[in-house]
Write a structure and sequence with these properties.
Layout (H helix, E strand, L loop, with lengths): L1 E5 L2 E3 L21 E3 L1 H15 L5 E8 L3 H11 L3 E6 L6 H15 L3 E5 L10 H9 L3 E11 L2 E8 L2 E8 L2 E5 L11 H7 L4 E4 L32 H10 L4
Parallel strand pairs: 1-4, 1-6, 4-5, 5-11, 6-10, 7-10
Antiparallel strand pairs: 2-3, 7-8, 8-9
The protein binds adenosine monophosphate (AMP).
Length: 248
Amino acid sequence: MKVLVPVKRVIDYNVKVRVKPDQTGVDLANVKMSMNPFDEISVEEAVRMKEAGIATEVVVVSIGPQQAQETIRTALAMGADRGILIKTDATVEPLAVAKLLAKVVADEKPDLVLVGKQAIDDDSNQTGQMLAALLDWPQGTFAYKIEKDGDALKVTREVDGGLQTVKLKTPAVVTVDLRLNEPRYASLPNIMKAKKKEIAEKSPADYGVDITPRLTVVKVTEPAARSGGIKVEDVAALVAKLKTAGAV
Ligand code: AMP
């Protein structure tokens, strides 16, 4: 099975995000960027499939600026075989990402596309679903477990209050959730090896995809600041406070 894994370069999850004073977006100047955490999980899963003899090749693809090459290198150091960078400095919305990925799928003909369930910068949770729709392929979202079942895939999904298992014919799109696995750290020898792996460079125009945004961001605001806590003497005082605050 050939596996395609899209990886997005996003603000590192440890960074405290600051909203720009003009409320047009978040401040990206001098901010640490990393691979979207859900994409680390998909790379890990694809590499485990390769180690188990289920996957034959793992190809990673990133749409973003030149620096997204570092994100691809990280995936290569984790064990992916080769990368494709679709270079653009523009903001690329999920529909445009899905259209570009559909073109990569047409070229690469993977049996499985392992997508993150959501990118932690835009929190869209749309790309995998849009890609499956564009390709007219089956999809399993929020994967907790992925197993090969003959020619099909059995995907156990995280749903409200439990798990649901679905069987998908391949080729298919699966979006991965947090509990699927724990991604590995790349070892130094593998980081060195990754430097020699191939990364093809493309542009959205090479695929004939118009990436002009269709959405307008009206404004971005910080979450409401939490009011400070207070100390109370005993339970009776706590209940009285909660009553006057209208909480009980
Ligand atoms: P989203 O729909 O934006 O929440 O993103 C869901 C997933 O789509 C991510 O976890 C990635 O696997 C993939 N994706 C989104 N944007 C990109 C991008 N620019 N490059 C590569 N993969 C992407």
